[in-house]
Specification:
Blueprint lengths: L3 H15 L1 E6 L4 H6 L2 E3 L1 H10 L4 E5 L2 H10 L4 E3 L15 H10 L4 E5 L4 H5 L3 E3 L4 H6 L7 E4 L2 H10 L5 E3 L5 H4 L3 H10 L4 E4 L5 H5 L3 E2 L2 H10 L4 E5 L5 H7 L4 E4 L14 H10 L8 H17 L1
Parallel strand pairs: 1-2, 1-3, 3-4, 5-6, 5-7, 7-8, 9-10, 9-11, 11-12
Helix pairs in contact: 1-14, 3-4, 4-15
This protein binds 1,3-dihydroxyacetonephosphate and iron/sulfur cluster.
Length: 305
């Protein structure tokens, strides 16, 4: 068994040989964030994938993120080190059920959270991430009904923020975020009364109500870096603590619950990254027909934000 630094050296060598870039989400293991060329939230990662000059993208995240990279950069080889790294929330909406719902709502604009499959994106009008969802909703004429898929928590948050009562919200959710309860958060607030409460909008509405700041993962990091405050309570996946501590070593961060852990995000290991670069597998592919349609919803989003 090799140690991490040996593996990192081998990954870096192979990365150069393959002209590859390693992209990582903030929820990845610390050692993966460290080996990555770029760490970001869903929006930043999609944008980076769209403009990179590397020939190979090693995507350290979950399946829908790697698929978005392939949709935006079809000529690149996109590797997902563990094909089983999916997103249970993205699986809560499929093509057939979306088509059925659309048939019941003729004229509705379908806004899909980026946490969806390529097929589902291909049946949607515009994509969004947690960083830009309110702006995307605001870009749609007020009198036009919206179907927001699949996250009920993000959907109800953005409908309220954009002050719209014509948003129909799909009933999906992220178990990692949705399991956080008000009583758990109250307990952590009692232990750390000075803590500024940072909440990801995938959390339940009663948690969002208790937030000092509601933001995407990148938004939370930016806030903590720029703020005068010294202590924070973090309501999102625990992997982000690595970036908080790295960027603000003098500040204190408390996770709202140790259960805020995404097992899929943790499936990527250094060994799997190395094996993926060595074998140039597993690759993400999207059929050209689906890709072209899904691209429209992603490109429209990137144009707006
Ligand atoms: P962001 O990084 O875009 O805030 O998304 C969080 C998430 O749950 C990704 O799966
Ligand atoms: Fe999906 Fe939630 Fe994991 Fe993000 S944290 S990948 S939304 S299950």
């Amino acid at each position: 068994m090799e140690n991490n630094s040996q593996l990192v050296n081998k990954i870096n060598q192979l990365k150069e040989q393959r002209n590859a870039i390693i992209l990582s989400h903030y929820y990845q293991r610390p050692e993966i964030q460290e080996v990555a060329d770029f760490v970001g939230d869903s929006l930043e990662l999609a944008k980076k994938a769209a403009v990179t000059e590397a020939e190979v993208i090693v995507f350290c995240g979950v399946h829908f993120m790697a698929e978005s990279a392939k949709i935006l950069s079809p000529d690149k080889i996109v590797l997902l080190p563990d094909l089983q790294a999916g997103c249970p929330m993205a699986d809560m909406v499929d093509l057939e059920s979306l088509k059925a719902k659309k048939a019941q709502m003729p004229g509705a604009v379908v806004v899909c959270y980026v946490n969806t499959s390529a097929e589902v994106k291909s049946e949607s009008d515009i994509a969004c991430t947690s960083a830009n969802a309110v702006k995307i909703i605001d870009s749609i004429p007020k009198d036009q009904p919206i179907l927001f898929i699949p996250d009920k928590n993000l959907g109800s948050y953005v409908a309220a923020k954009a002050n719209r009562d014509n948003v129909t919200v799909w009933q999906g959710f992220c178990n990692t975020h949705d399991q956080l309860t008000k009583s758990q958060l109250l307990r952590v607030k009692e232990e750390h009364p000075q803590g500024v409460v940072l909440v990801h909008p995938e959390c339940r509405p009663d948690i969002v109500e208790m937030a000092d700041v509601v933001a995407s993962t990148a938004g939370m990091l930016k806030y903590a870096e720029e703020s005068q405050d010294k202590e924070f309570i973090v309501c999102t996946e625990v992997g982000i603590l690595h970036q908080f501590k790295k960027r603000c070593p003098e500040k204190k961060f408390h996770i709202a619950s140790e259960k805020m852990f995404c097992p899929n995000m943790k499936k990527t290991t250094l060994e799997k990254v190395y094996n993926a670069l060595l074998a140039m597998e597993p690759r993400i592919n999207v059929s050209e027909d689906i890709r072209k349609k899904a691209l429209k919803s992603l490109e429209l989003m990137i144009k707006i934000v």
